[in-house]
Write a structure and sequence with these properties.
Elements lengths: L1 E3 L7 E4 L5 E4 L11 H6 L16 E2 L14 E4 L9 E6 L7 E6 L4 E2 L4 E10 L9 E7 L36 E7 L36 E2 L9 E2 L4 E5 L7 E13 L6 E13 L2 E5 L15 E8 L8 E7 L15 E6 L12 E9 L6 E8 L4 E12 L5 E4 L4 E4 L3 E13 L3 E10 L3 E9 L28 E5 L6 E3 L4 E10 L8 E3 L3 E5 L4 E5 L3 E4 L6
Parallel strand pairs: 25-35
Antiparallel strand pairs: 1-20, 2-3, 4-7, 5-6, 6-22, 7-21, 8-21, 9-18, 9-22, 10-11, 10-21, 11-14, 12-13, 14-17, 15-16, 18-19, 19-20, 23-24, 23-26, 26-31, 27-29, 27-30, 27-33, 28-31, 32-35, 33-34
Keywords: Signal
Protein name: Extracellular protein
Organism: Levilactobacillus parabrevis ATCC 53295
Length: 553
């Protein structure tokens, strides 16, 4: 198992009980949204799940046998930075206690025989409350669309502790044949202490913990079940994974105390002194995300990006692997950024109980609230089983020979009145499906005067209705300084589809405005979007400084 984590500014390194190293990371420097609606209004760009995909891509079963009430999961509209469409999966809503949510891909679309990627933004925070809960989980499972285990610390995927706290492994009530990645915002770290040992003759006094009226919630306790003195509490919010339906995911600890038992004659619960059990959950690939709230890095009222990358086994009997990397994109621009907050865990395909010849499983999200609640939102920019995509932007200046060879990097200086070329490249890099219905939504630096543009399609013989030209007359001026000029670029008339490793480019030509008459002018980098019906990628122009025009006369 490979786990790595760092802080912004400093690193705190601590040994965990899960066979690896973990550290606590400071919050990303991004915008704070105090409510769920504010988070949706300021959402990063993703795939419009409501209109971009087939209407039956997801299944939200309204009722399941393992939970009371109605499924809280739904697809909801979100703001689009690109000015197109955008939507989020909502698993739970702040202020709604004791709720449950589950949403599943209708088809088994996560192929365990191929490389797969889930790239998404998550928001997991409460509103005006010190405590939030309980969290959500990204799940792969070989079962139906009615899969759900229970609320509370189970988050809809892990097993549910036995009501009488008898020696029953929770795996029996978990989602079967599954792997889960939890985003746990409420640490459940109860450790019912053993009573005092009075010697071999008198034995042990009962624990002071009241098993009759209280319910130990101990999934976030680390350590062996047979040595309570070696157990410790996971007190921070965290991200971790394991197999919910596997008995070795849970470790039981026996405590002699006072609790309840069922009267065999009446069927009623009666007081009983004896052995009771609490279970902890083995967290694989643990990422410690700090305290609940603004000082942490999970339930801090910010959007965070996570990429979950699966690599299939290289031999018929070997394990695959899953790497999940947190905070790997800038929430303000949507662009990739370096992250050392990641873990890699093995994936044992036998845990899915696949039938002969089967390679695909269902994927989805589960979540729950209890006494405490939160907004759990997910926005996908790349969907498992669909297309993997990328985009980039370059800015070049014409040299004295008339060629655009001088590429501009962040922080460079450019003379006013220079001829400039902006090149936007977008491509399909992998996945199971084509990148469908792609169009461009460009943001151009304020002080570039664009005069013309063209589109180069993968099929060089193809000509769209505008003769592969960009209509630069549609450029919209910045609403305020630094916002950039907006330009929607329709592709292939009704949206471009890319297959294989096809790529296309949008090229704009123009001049850098001569605006630095008395002092240099700073130009901010600008983010552009290439939005398809099943994937979205972003491209950034560099930030640069415009200097006074060089007069060669």
């Amino acid at each position: 198992m490979n786990i790595k984590k760092s802080m912004l500014g400093m690193t705190v390194l601590a040994i965990t009980g899960f066979g690896g190293w973990s550290t606590i990371s400071a919050s990303a420097n991004s915008q704070v949204f105090s409510t769920g609606q504010a988070a949706l209004d300021g959402a990063p760009q993703g795939v419009d799940l409501q209109s971009g995909l087939d209407s039956n891509y997801f299944t939200i079963d309204p009722n399941v046998g393992t939970a009371s009430g109605t499924n809280a999961a739904k697809l909801t509209k979100a703001h689009s930075p690109a000015g197109t469409g955008n939507s989020a999966i909502q698993i739970s809503k702040a202020g709604v206690q004791d709720s449950w949510g589950a949403i599943w891909s209708t088809d088994e679309s996560f192929d365990l025989s191929k490389s797969e990627t889930a790239s998404m933004w998550i928001y997991a925070s409460g509103e005006n409350a010190a405590n939030v809960g309980d969290g959500m989980a990204f799940v792969l499972q070989n079962g139906g669309t009615d899969a759900y285990s229970g609320a509370g610390e189970s988050m809809g995927v892990w097993g549910v502790a036995n009501d009488l706290f008898s020696d029953v492994n929770p795996a029996s009530s978990a989602i079967k044949n599954s792997w889960a990645l939890e985003f746990d915002t409420y640490p459940n770290d109860d450790i019912p202490k053993q009573g005092a040992y009075l010697g071999w003759l008198l034995g042990t006094t009962p624990s002071t913990y009241d098993f009759f009226n209280s319910s130990p919630s101990s999934y976030d306790v680390d350590g062996p079940g047979d040595a309570q003195s070696s157990q410790s509490q996971i007190k921070d919010t965290h991200i971790a994974s394991n197999y919910p339906g596997s008995t070795d995911t849970y470790t039981g600890t026996k405590v002699y105390g006072n609790g309840g038992a069922i009267n065999s004659a009446t069927g009623n619960k009666i007081a009983h002194t004896g052995n009771f059990y609490y279970y902890n959950l083995q967290h694989k690939g643990l990422l410690d995300e700090g305290a609940t709230g603004g000082s942490g890095n999970l339930s801090d009222h910010r959007w965070h990006h996570i990429t979950v990358s699966y690599t299939p086994p290289t031999t018929s009997s070997g394990d695959g692997s899953m790497t999940y990397t947190y905070n790997d994109k800038n929430p303000d621009t949507g662009l990739p950024q370096k992250s050392t907050d990641y873990a890699t865990v093995p994936i044992d395909l036998s845990k899915f109980n696949l039938s002969s010849g089967q390679t695909k499983v269902r994927w989805g999200f589960t979540g729950s609230t209890g006494l405490y609640s939160e907004n759990n939102l997910v926005i996908f920019d790349q969907i498992p089983g669909e297309a993997q995509t990328d985009a980039s932007a370059t800015m070049t200046i014409k040299d004295s020979d008339g060629n655009y060879t001088n590429e501009i990097s962040d922080g460079d200086s450019v003379s006013g009145d220079s001829d400039v070329k902006l090149t936007y490249t977008f491509e399909r890099t992998g996945g199971d499906e084509d990148w469908k219905s792609v169009n461009g939504d460009l943001t151009i630096p304020d002080d570039i005067d664009v005069t013309s543009g063209s589109i180069a399609y993968p099929d060089a013989s193809y000509t769209d209705s505008n003769k592969n030209k960009v209509d630069v007359s549609k450029i919209v001026a910045p609403t305020s300084s630094g916002d950039g000029q907006k330009l929607s670029v329709p592709l292939a008339d009704n949206g471009l589809t890319l297959s294989g490793t096809q790529k296309a480019t949008v090229t704009l030509y123009g001049k850098v405005k001569d605006v630095a008459s008395t002092s240099d002018v700073s130009e901010a980098s600008q983010t552009s979007y290439f939005v398809g019906s099943n994937a979205t990628s972003t491209a950034k122009t560099p930030n640069f400084t415009i200097t006074k025009k060089v007069n060669l006369d």
